[in-house]
Amino acid sequence: MLDGFVAWLSEAGGRISFVVVPVDAQEEGFSWTDPGLIGAMIGAAASILVAFAILMITTSIERRHRALDKVEFDRVRAEDQSAMEVQRTEDRLRRDAAGALNTHAKVSRYANSILAVKNAIDRRFAEINEDGSDLADPSQIVGPIPGKFVVPEKLKSDEYSFLFTKENFLVAGEIEDLESGCILMMSLVEEYTAMQLELQKWLDDMHGAERRLEGMIASDIIPREMEGRLNRRIAQANILIASIVEITDQRNPSPKEVMEHFIAAAVASPFGKYFPKMELG
C-alpha cells in the first residue's frame, strides 16, 4: 500500500494531464453487530408488527360491522317480508269480503223476488176475505201478477265457496234451493200471467158472454156450451198458481231465514271483520 505519490502522465503530446492522489482505503461492507443497524432493524420490525396488528384489528372490526349490518339487514328484510305477508293476507280477506257482499246482493234479489210475489198474492187473498167471498178456485182470486220480474243472475260456485265447510254446507244448500226456487217461480209467474191475460181476452171475445165485476170478483156469465172450456182453463191456471204459492210459502227455511244464515256465516268467516253486520227487517 502506498502512503502517497504524485504521478504525471502525459499523452498525446502532453495535451492531456491528470493527477492521481491516493487516499486511505476502508474495507467495504457492514457489521451485523452495529448498534445503529440493530436499532433500525428493531424499529422496522416493531413498525411492521404495529401495522399488522392495526390491519388485523381493522379487518376484525370491519368484519364485525359487516356481520352486524347483515344481521340488521336480514332482520329488517324479515320484518318487511312479514309485514308484506300480513298485508297480502289482509288484502285477500278484503277481497273475499267484497266477493261475499256481492253474493249477498244476488241472494237478496232471489229472496226479494219471492217475497214480492208472495206479498202480491197474499194481498189479493186478504182483499177477497174482506169481501166475505168464498171461492174454490185461486185463479179467480189472483189475476195477472203485476210487475216485470227479471230472473236474477245465477250464482257461480266460487262466489259462495267460503260456505263449503263442515259448518256451513247446509247454508250453501239453502242458497242453491232459494236460487232454483226463484228461477222456477219466475217461469211460473210469467206463464200464469200470460194464461190469465189470454183467458180474459178469450172471455172478452166470446160471443154471448156477459162480463161482470162484483167487488174484486169477476162473475162472468157465459154460454153453457163454453163452460167446459172455461173450467179446463181455470183448472190449468189453478195448477200454476198453486205451484207459485208453494214456492212463496216456503218455510223451512224461509227466504228471510236463508239471508240471515248467509250473513251469520259470512260474519263468522275469516274475512268476517270486513263484512258488514246487517240485520234484516
Strand order within the widest beta sheet: 1-2
Q: What is the helix/strand order? A: HHEEHH
Number of helices: 4
Strand content: under 5%
Give the N-terminus to C-terminus distance in angstroms: 137 Å
List the topology elements:
Blueprint (H helix, E strand, L loop, with lengths): L34 H97 L37 H37 L7 E2 L2 E2 L8 H22 L6 H13 L14
Antiparallel strand pairs: 1-2
Descriptive report:
It is a single chain. The protein is mainly α. It has a domain at 86-274. Helices cover 60% and strands 1% of the residues. The chain has 4 helices and 2 strands, in the order H-H-E-E-H-H. It has a two-stranded antiparallel ribbon with strand order 1-2. Helix 1 runs parallel beside helix 2, helix 1 (35-131) runs antiparallel to helix 4 and helix 2 runs antiparallel to helix 4 (255-267). The longest helix has 97 residues, at 35-131. It is rod-shaped, with a radius of gyration of 54 Å. The N and C termini lie far apart (137 Å).
